[in-house]
Design brief:
Layout: H1 3-32, H2 36-64, H3 72-78, H4 104-128, H5 132-160
């Protein structure tokens, strides 16, 4: 196996682990928060992390089978039939832990840090590859995780009164 392919497999395995950790974190977070909007946000993020996992797992399967990278569009169309369990038979997945008495602000802060690390990882992965399909998938994931970061940051800022929240208008654009 060539070095680039081995590196891609390692990057994908790490990315899959990150997505599982993110999904598990958001599942745990949804159970810790009382605020309905925050709970709904975390539940939505669980579903999005699952989608990322599906796409990355399908790519790992393709590369492990000696095939090249599929395009993001192809992965989005074909991942629903992918057998998710086979990838992780021997995989040791670390969990992100929240303290038992974690409050909503702590949960949001940890979520923000998780997303920042994910963005950095996928950005580095995109910059390290010369394969256009791989770069497309990693760049898409940067955008996805950046969207999650925006949502969590806005929720945190709303709770602390430290910034603008997309639900509140600071001023009117109406002309009187």
């Amino acid at each position: 196996m060539e070095d680039g392919k081995r590196n891609h497999l390692e990057i994908l395995r790490n990315a899959i682990s990150m997505e599982i950790e993110g999904k598990e974190f958001f599942e745990e977070a949804s159970g810790k928060v009382k605020h309905k909007r925050a709970k709904d946000t975390f539940i939505s993020l669980v579903k999005q992390e699952q989608r990322h996992f599906d796409i990355l797992s399908a790519e790992l399967s393709r590369l492990s089978d000696g095939k090249g990278w599929a395009s993001l569009a192809e992965m989005k169309d074909t991942t629903s039939a992918y057998d998710r369990k086979s990838v992780f038979k021997d995989k040791d997945i670390k969990r992100i832990r929240l303290s038992p008495d974690a409050g909503e602000l702590e949960v949001l802060k940890v979520g923000i840090e998780v997303e920042k690390k994910s963005i950095e990882y996928y950005r580095d992965a995109a910059n390290q590859t010369t394969d256009q399909n791989a770069r497309g998938i990693f760049t898409w994931l940067v955008g996805e995780e950046a969207g999650h970061l925006t949502i969590l940051s806005a929720e945190y800022e709303n709770r602390t009164g430290s910034g603008f929240y997309y639900d509140n208008m600071e001023f009117s654009l109406e002309v009187m």
